[in-house]
Design brief:
Shape: rod-shaped
Distance between the termini: 100 Å
Strand content: 5-15%
Number of strands: 5
Strand order of the largest sheet: 2-1-3
Largest sheet: 3 strands, antiparallel
């Protein structure tokens, strides 16, 4: 045997309470999101200003990036605690919507509780279902007249949004006043100092050089090829020299650095002092690009 039909006002009450819950959730999430963004943006703005004014990059990045990360964590913790503290049941939401009106609160809460107990009351027959439905209909009309915007204000979300807007305006003003140096400071704070690109390796890539000499005609010397040298060249002026060698690793670009060996100094008249500094290393006088074949043959 089926029970009596549900009151026609029951869906209206349920729908209105669901609207109130969704609005409360939107206000909480919007407040947390705006507060998190405002806090993080303010920390980044302060950090960029500190770097722009000459603060130590390592300390400034650690402090202000920590603050920027703490802002969303704090906002999420606040939203979670508030969501756990607020009532989300039908009766609790009805009490919140009633506000300070005890009459409305009693009417709404009793209607919600009677709707939940309606099947058992109808089966027991101890309560008139018609009277119960009439009370529920009156409560539905009273609940429909409640202004959700007034009962669940969005003031916290609007304040957080204004704070975010204020930080955005300050950031734009600082960028306009500081120009590119301030923008670079902001990028240094967020991304760190760009790693210096490694230059080409200057260490030797071979130690076995084959040298071919073509001496000037006036020397009457035949061409000569020397293998297994270290690259040292001694030849009369005007000699044409070609070299062949093999790199000990794959290379794409190689250069030959020419230096002029210092001539031995004449013996000093008196012995030099014991603490005389060593002679400076010879400076390169020319660099010649080498042809590379098969990534190893030079």
């Amino acid at each position: 045997m089926s029970g009596p039909p549900m009151s026609r006002a029951a869906p209206d009450i349920s729908r209105r309470l669901d609207q109130a819950k969704r609005r409360r959730l939107r206000v909480i999430l919007a407040t947390a999101a705006c507060a998190a963004l405002a806090g993080a943006a303010a920390a980044l703005l302060a950090g960029a200003a500190a770097l722009h004014l000459g603060a130590r990059p390592g300390v400034a990045r650690w402090v202000f990036l920590t603050l920027a990360l703490a802002a969303p964590i704090a906002a999420a913790a606040w939203a979670w605690r508030l969501g756990r503290r607020l009532p989300w049941t039908a009766a609790g939401t009805a009490r919140a919507l009633a506000g300070g009106s005890s009459t409305l609160r009693d009417e709404l809460v009793s209607a919600v509780e009677l709707l939940e107990a309606r099947p058992a009351l109808a089966e027991s027959g101890g309560v008139s279902i018609e009277l119960l439905d009439a009370h529920v209909e009156r409560a539905a009309k009273s609940l429909g007249a409640v202004d959700l915007a007034a009962a669940i204000p969005d003031r916290p979300a609007r304040r957080a949004g204004l704070a975010l807007l204020g930080v955005a305006v300050l950031s734009l003003a600082a960028l306009g006043a500081g120009g590119r140096p301030f923008a670079r400071a902001w990028l240094r704070l967020v991304a760190g100092d760009a790693a210096q690109s490694a230059g080409p390796s200057l260490e030797p890539i071979t130690g076995d050089v084959e040298l071919s000499y073509r001496f000037p005609a006036h020397t009457h010397r035949p061409p000569q090829t020397l293998s297994g040298t270290g690259g040292e060249i001694r030849a009369p002026k005007g000699t044409e020299i070609s070299l062949r060698t093999r790199a000990d690793r794959p290379v794409e670009v190689a250069e030959l650095e020419l230096t002029l060996a210092a001539r031995p100094a004449p013996p000093p008249a008196s012995p030099p002092p014991a603490a005389s500094p060593p002679p400076p290393a010879p400076e390169p006088i020319r660099r010649i690009a080498l042809a590379v074949a098969n990534q190893r043959d030079l």
